[in-house]
């Protein structure tokens, strides 16, 4: 820096040079204002840096920053040490270790200092009897398997992962941001519910815990919501996994509307938490769990597989991968499907010969097992499969399986995932038992979902398609892009045995000779079977095409590719009344 000063003395010029060099941290030369090319004095910045501060080379964290780091490190330790030890004894990771397993650290965290004033010794209003770091709930962003996601995780070492005012506020903000930026939300749940002794300010408020479930509803079908349960999720906490699109329960976890102690108080029933709402209950009986994980690592693996089929949001396309050949040759499809309509077989053997190898992820496999619902890939394209399972209850549709299929179809449609229906069913089950369980009510949901889905759909009549089963399985009347059939397929109001009995019972009963009656019954049955054979249906163009079984995969790949840009619109209305 060069400066000019009018008529300075030598001492004044030196003082000015030193002062300016110290102030601005650079070399200063002082010249006479009246001219002259030689400086009167020169000054260099002091060794300590500008105005006595360290130079850039010597700069480092101040004591103030060091104190902040100490506070952050303390918060990251979670609740009292004894509760961390209990987590380890229960075979569960401390929440911060869990986040490291999933993400190798968060991209960033929001609300680390939530409720800081209530507990930390450095805060002016602290009551240090209870540690409440982050208010027991962590929210932030992370990269998961290459995908940017929102993350929420309960800290069970802080009052058993219970929810209170500041934690709820953080969760609400995370949900609102997910709604705005269209990125998936992961909920890593381990919570005993609302913090009852602190419910003022978060329970019934407009921006309280009730708003969490409102936000779940707004996010539903907008961005994928995946919930993983690690421990007890009781009362209000149990609604998050229920509202999520997909729920994974780790062995040892549980969810219930009330704790066993509350159940006993209200009903007198003595029951363990596992029997009340453990994975076996919700995977096989309630249908609330989509998948069950063996341990924490398996839960992460399942979530990664699940997310691999899903787009970031409803406006994005599901992720494609490189296609691979099926695990078993499509040439064997015809041998997998028995010729006899009533003979059972495992439809998974058929699926395995159609889709890409190792691409099947079945959901709710133990619930409503007479229908298989699964994600898979066809030449790298994600598809949702709804397949009747003749190996279980002959593939008849029961209330549980109808509801399972309806929810799966509804979810696939929300996220733009094409649907493949594999139809081999005698139709909806009949009887007083299923009537009491709501076969009509739940059956209509399955039919409604098939009718309302606007994603590309392919229906394959694998063998039998009787009764309203062909409607529920998105048959010709339900706007599939194609209705295909394998050569042994039959489409009818009912099967030959039942039909002959219904129509010709009196005629057959009038034949006295048993052998003659049997011959006539067989003749009528074969005549009926010719009428319902898919060749007749194809002749009448009810069926678009009868496909040689060995070419089924190629046929489906081509048709999904061709129809991927199909535009289907529902009638203009607010929404239907069925679901």
UniProtKB/TrEMBL annotation:
Positions of region (Disordered): 32-63, 311-338
Q: Where is the CoA carboxyltransferase N-terminal domain?
A: 61-322
Give the matching Pfam families. Carboxyl_trans
* GO BP terms, alphabetized: L-leucine catabolic process
* Start-end of Acidic residues biased regions: 34-45
Provide any one GO MF term from the record: methylcrotonoyl-CoA carboxylase activity
Recorded hits in InterPro entries, A to Z, give: AcCoA_carboxyl_beta (IPR034733), ClpP/crotonase-like_dom_sf (IPR029045), COA_CT_C (IPR011763), COA_CT_N (IPR011762), MCCB/AccD1-like (IPR045190)
TM segments?
A: none
- CoA carboxyltransferase C-terminal domain: which residues? 332-572
Q: Which domain of life is it from?
A: Archaea
Gene Ontology cellular-component annotations? methylcrotonoyl-CoA carboxylase complex
Spell out the Gene3D superfamilies in the cross-references: 2-enoyl-CoA Hydratase, Chain A, domain 1
PANTHER family, sorted: ACETYL, PROPIONYL, PYRUVATE, AND GLUTACONYL CARBOXYLASE-RELATED (PTHR22855), METHYLCROTONOYL-COA CARBOXYLASE BETA CHAIN, MITOCHONDRIAL (PTHR22855:SF13)
Q: What is this protein called?
A: Acyl-CoA carboxylase subunit beta
**What organism is recorded for this protein?**
Haloplanus rubicundus
